[in-house]
Amino acid sequence: MSDIVKVQDEAQIAEAVVAALGENKTLEVVGHGSKRGLGRASQTDRTLDVSEVRGVTLYEPGELVLSARAGTPVAQIETMLAQNGQMMAFEPIDYGPLLGGPAGAGSIGGVFACNLSGPRRISHGAARDHALGARAVSGRGEVFKSGGRVVKNVTGYDLPRLLAGSYGTLGVLSEVTLKVIPRPPTQETLIVFGLDADSSARAISAAMGSSCEVSAAAAIPAVLAPRLPQLETDRSVVALRLEGFEPSVKARRAMLIRVLMPFGGVEVLEAEASAALWAGVRDVLPFAQTRERAVWRISTTPMAGPHLAAELATALDAEAFCDWAGGLVWVQMPDALPQADAVRARLAPHGGHATLVRADAAQRAGAVFQPLETAHAALSQRVKASFDPKGLLNPGRMYAGA
Amino acid sequence: MTSLRLPAADETTLANREKIIADLRAIVPGEGVIAHEKEMRPYESDGVTAYKQLPLVVVLPSTTEQVARVLKYCHENNVRVVPRGAGTSLSGGALPLQDGVLLAMGKFNKVLDIDFANRCAVVQPGVTNLGITRAVEHEGFYYAPDPSSQIACTIGGNVGENSGGVHCLKYGLTTNNVLGVELVLITGEIVRLGGKHLDPGALDLLGVIVGSEGLLGVVTEVTVRLLKKPDTARAVLVGFPTSEDAGECVARIISAGIIPGGIEMMDRDAIAAAEAFVNVGYPLDVEALLIVELDGPEAECAHLLEEVAAIAKGCNASTLRVSQTEDERLGFWAGRKAAFPAVGRLSPDYLCMDGTIPRRQLPLVLSRMREMSVQYGLRVANVFHAGDGNLHPLILYDANKPGELDAAEAFGSDILRLCVEVGGVLTGEHGVGVEKRDLMPTMFNEVDLAHQQRLKCAFDDQNLLNPGKVFPTLQRCAELGRMHVSQGQVPFPDIPRF
Question: Is B201 in Cβ contact with A369 (below 8 Å)?
Fold first, then answer.
């Protein structure tokens, strides 16, 4: 068990990093610990706990902007936004259920550090697309800021975007500023049953290529459909979400039904069931009850997703379903073994990357993230070193030895 | 020509010019290397014509391999490189260096792959922004970011500058619409970032390449996201007795949960100039004019038009016109799109500024700008991407009158300082380039800037790519890399600025 340094504010984060620098100690950066199991398992000398560095420092609904200290609970921010009819458009996944922790436990810093998103990724982007500004402490023990609080800003390098998805390896986030958007007044989900992988890919592509403004699109194979109770089916499902103002959603429903005509009849899931369904897809609930089994998260070319899911199911005895119009494939292996080489070999022809998101620490000592080409890996390493020359922050979290 | 300072030219490079040209000709044969002064003249400036500098030599590669070999050669021989797209930069980002190779990417002009099923296209960086839409519109698709120079500017330049446009509140900037790039580093190494999939699954280097103003690498291929064109678009033209009313109207529209495709604002001077130029029926008796465009299914547009009209009336709108035909909608935009040349007719020269502010600060910023206008004795007209707070004050001056350019630049700098003071930023979409370089310290302190500059070192350890842009100081990577552990100590307080 490593020493825990619990800090209260940004200045104390900097002090803790400076102290670690002086004493040659490495740090694991932790908010509320809900995503501690993400990334490579590695040993650090100390744990830097920023969960008390919290509080919303700015929220101006009329300007669609919110700033919060890194340890602020996501749940608190979501409640605050909902009270003003707003939301984080990127709909961040709650990893709690999948990784075996409680639901609703993460921090906003963690959301950005892991560049989370959800089903709305395909229409509204991920955390990276909503990061307007950030304050952080680099591995030099220095506080630096980047970006701003306005949507349109090209002043200097876009460091907030670089920090998003850096898993705390470049800097300890102390505060993030994000763009928020109005919550759509209504939503519903159109469902087509019984399509095979090929037809699922084509049906989703037709819907996404229409002007219906589909805000989420998933393909669930028959074996997994019963684990999303709102579907009430044991057939395969293609689910397409429409959101917006009532008259618009109605009009787009009619349009989308026409688009889907060649693929069969359509059923409609109304607002409440629709919201529950997408929360389940977002949080990967079909794999939440089987925590001993390894889970991969694969981002690939959308049209390839349903085929890849079917192939992995057949060839490796895995279970897989697609979000992101096919481009995100969640794969649950038959047991605790990730079978990384087999998974990555099947992904390779389609392009993209596979990340091992659930496995025990021993398995996560290997390559969790997609291995990079030599020049790309070396460049990433230099970028890491430019922020953290001593390799102090979350060492080994993304890549061995870095 | 103003007193702009660029990094001192390297004497060795200048002395070796002939040999460097010969070596580059061996990499890029035929007409791909331009060394005659007269033929280099078209490259001496970009969209900021106040700054001119002939490059050492112009190189027009046509393959990624040539780009890689040119960069490797420059890296090995300590020669600076300035990448250039169409040269439409409004911040001097493509301003050549006397001792630098100007790497013009115009020959990379092919659309490589259109993938409607996956809603993306792979294009070379010299394809124009509008060229992408032209290549896909027969299937009803388009590329969303629409900078006003879209007919001429290239996607490579858009990536370098993270270009926006009038529709980015709803559809995002370049960074939200680029899925991948092929990038050549100064060492000649080729790195592919992203592709047809989403997010990197690694450090988001693509995220930092977009908007890096040619300082980190040279992009040789871009994968962009395509969107289906909305079924309908309708616009409403609303006049207000005060800019405060107009600003309030924008805030209420957004607070009502409406994200229009575009919201543009013009002030009295800009309205008058535009109307005199294109005659589209703008009201002339108002202080501020809003163009609100709603796009989507017809039912949605109709519904939201009613809401917007009701909100506008509640904000003291004095005139309100909804476009009834596509021609009328385009007419509303014609005035706005012609605002720059229209203002150009009022005055021999003008400077276009590009700060962004929190929207609610608009009345304060406009009134302070009016005071400055009196103080400097120069007129200013304002067009404004009202939805996202991006201001484009146009400062009118006459370069032939002694001192007016300097005064205009000082006025512009004051406006940008004001933007930062009220919580905004120096540049919303035009880039820092050389134009706003020396203002960077108003927004970032030395530590902030050092973190950015060290990132550059990770890509370009000898500062060979586009030096003299973005950062007010040029520092050696070795110096930047030193650790400064002691608290409160500012690194390099005495470093000379250029």
Answer: yes
